[in-house]
């Protein structure tokens, strides 16, 4: 592989997250940014001038005129599907922002288009921007869970309410927090990383029972508070509690197994290691009340390492240049966390526990019904300043 070879990359979408991408792309040695695209001409022109590249006002123009080999898709969620499918059909490598799509049916269409494209272009890559997989504490959780130190897992509880958003945040765009524009609330916008992390660590549950509160604290038509309960076939249960209306928020992750308990909170990872299995102890102990002896250990985590969007993108571009290789997250994985999110909402809509896999057509139909019946009117506030870096979990 030539050390000076570069991937010709186009970027579609220059909103908050698109501007994050354009920032690191300009500093990468293995990338040539051949074009940026936004439907707002003045935005595309401004960022193209700053990045010394060409401006495009439709993704078709970018695809046809820029000479790109790979595309980063950072547009509103519903547009991920048609743009990605067209990119696959043109033989382009795709790195898609989260979530992969709004609903499972659209995600499956994207995956089917990719698999079809790969039959004629086996080296074609599809990645998804799950940059939180690069964060040191989550990587260490994955290492410990996969290593089996906890033995049989019994309970996972994740309280992640550190997603505070004010009303002006939701008012900053006409597409935000609407069924037609965004397709959902906290589960679609803030929590795809959490949903992916849950399934990355534990797999998908067999059953979901959930309550999603619509516009409980904000003037929006989608969910801003969710409490979900998961049942796994191996006996493990899970709790998932999130909201955009709690300040100060909490990010506390408890993972309980027969051999101990992991707690991640406030940038500290603690293991309470049982001397013997609690399941063995509860069966064999002659004491009615005595706990298992456990030892407190603070797990060392090396935090001074590269993380974030750039790491995901760099791995993606290097895989293109080398003709293959592993990615931080392959695009096909995106449907798993989306299944969790759609399942939570479907359970709440139906006011019942649902089984996975659920009927994806039923969820899509419900979404279309919500869009058609919406009478919600947004008052959009222009030029709202937002430091999006504050929204990235650490």
From TrEMBL:
Transmembrane segments: none annotated. Pfam families: GFO_IDH_MocA, GFO_IDH_MocA_C3. Residues 138-262 form the GFO/IDH/MocA-like oxidoreductase domain. It comes from the Bacteria. Residues 7-118 form the Gfo/Idh/MocA-like oxidoreductase N-terminal domain. PANTHER family: D-GLUCOSIDE 3-DEHYDROGENASE, UDP-N-ACETYL-2-AMINO-2-DEOXY-D-GLUCURONATE OXIDASE. This is Gfo/Idh/MocA family oxidoreductase.
